[in-house]
Amino acid sequence: MLLQGILIVIIGALIGWITNYIAIKMLFRPYKEINFGLFKIQGLIPKRRHEIAMTIAETVQKELISMDDIIGKLKTSEMGTELENMIDEILSRKLKSEITSKFPMLAMFLNDSMVDKIKDAIKNTILENKDEILEKIFASIEKKVDFKEIIVERVDNFSLEQLEEITFSLAKKELKHIEVIGAVLGGLIGLVQFGITFIL
């Protein structure tokens, strides 16, 4: 009877462990749908990847970060100073060569002082309209960049093998615990069954 009880507990534990092990594996496997005639089988995440991607995108956009947040950060950053430095760098590097290549006759009258005056005039004209320029850039980004669409596209195109590897590497301990809990519960059920059989 004792041997029978031990065997029932061991078999119950094995069934519990194997059941949970298979359930964990079936989060991803099989990647592609397998048709058995009366029913079809496919891993939960491969089957519902697009829905998961949509949910992730919506959660990220609503709860974590949105395009409004990004635009807000850009507006509060030193964009004006960066724009000014960029204009300075471009004009210093290209203005003289552009003028002389497009207007060769001006080359003989063009000195550094004149180039500096032209550069300052162009730079001041742009900086006077700096706020309007930046607002148009931000509005264009907000209109053309769909944050949610980018996330959905990335998740949809993410390799299932990579996703599985990342998931199992991050949650390795927790998934092992689930397998162990399955074995413990299976063993306890086996013990209860043996107890009932013994009493009856």
UniProtKB/TrEMBL annotation:
Subcellular location: Endomembrane system
InterPro entries: DUF445
Record keywords: Membrane, Transmembrane, Transmembrane helix
Record's GO cellular component terms: endomembrane system
Origin superkingdom: Bacteria
Organism field: Cetobacterium ceti
Family to which this protein belongs: Belongs to the UPF0754 family.
TM segment ranges: 6-24, 180-199
The protein's name: DUF445 domain-containing protein
